[in-house]
Design a protein that fits this description.
Layout (H helix, E strand, L loop, with lengths): L1 H24 L10 H10 L7 H4 L8 E3 L14 H6 L10 E9 L6 E8 L4 E9 L5 E11 L5 E7 L3 E8 L6 E9 L5 E3 L1
Antiparallel strand pairs: 1-6, 2-3, 3-4, 4-5, 5-6, 6-7, 7-8, 8-9
Length: 196
């Protein structure tokens, strides 16, 4: 009987010790009244607010998709300000543009970030450009994936996008029949876009 009582006492001591150690791990912050461990976890889960939040909060589109952005199906007044234009290195996207907006983003790879921008050149031309940045938002490469013009409505461009390739279809109405030229581009693991 004494051995049994001893085993029960040792068992109670082990359980008591485990509870005490557990309580030490879960210290309560006197100011907030919150568990310190939970508070640390909550802090680490909060995304860091940085200058590129305007890009990260852009809606994501799933692929495969067809981008046929044109004057009839696109309107936005969420134009980027000068600071945002500098951050996206807009001079590497286009020399002269008006009313540049972030259209959408794509999740093509963990190695780089992909955003699609739409902008005017004058009142009669609308360009849509896919741009890859590294994970620190340094410019890697770009590709014009959609185009529309309203001067004579003779030219337009649309693209089919997958995670492996982009097929750009340039369409011309200058002849009696519609003329179409398709070019295939490959997206490399480093984010570079090259012609297939």
């Amino acid at each position: 009987m004494s051995i049994l009582k001893f085993k029960i006492s040792v068992g109670k001591m082990i359980v008591f010790s485990a509870i005490m150690i557990s309580c030490q791990d879960n210290k309560i912050d006197e100011k907030t009244g919150l568990d310190v461990k939970s508070e640390k976890n909550a802090i680490s889960e909060v995304p860091v607010n940085n200058e590129f939040t305007f890009l990260e909060t852009t809606p994501e589109r799933k692929f495969p998709l067809t981008d046929s952005t044109n004057f009839d199906n696109f309107f936005s007044d969420k134009f980027l300000n000068q600071r945002q234009l500098d951050l996206i290195q807009s001079k590497k996207i286009t020399d002269e543009s008006e009313n540049l907006v972030v259209n959408y983003r794509l999740n093509l790879s963990k190695n780089f970030k992909t955003f699609v921008f739409t902008y005017n050149k004058g009142e009669m031309e609308l360009f849509t450009t896919l741009v890859n940045y590294d994970n620190d938002y340094k410019f890697i490469s770009k590709l014009d994936i959609a185009y529309d013009e309203t001067a004579e409505s003779w030219f337009r461009t649309e693209s089919e996008i997958s995670n492996k390739e982009i097929i750009v279809n340039k369409i011309s109405y200058t002849e009696e029949a519609e003329q179409s030229t398709k070019t295939s581009y490959k997206i490399q693991k480093n984010g570079m876009i090259i012609k297939n």
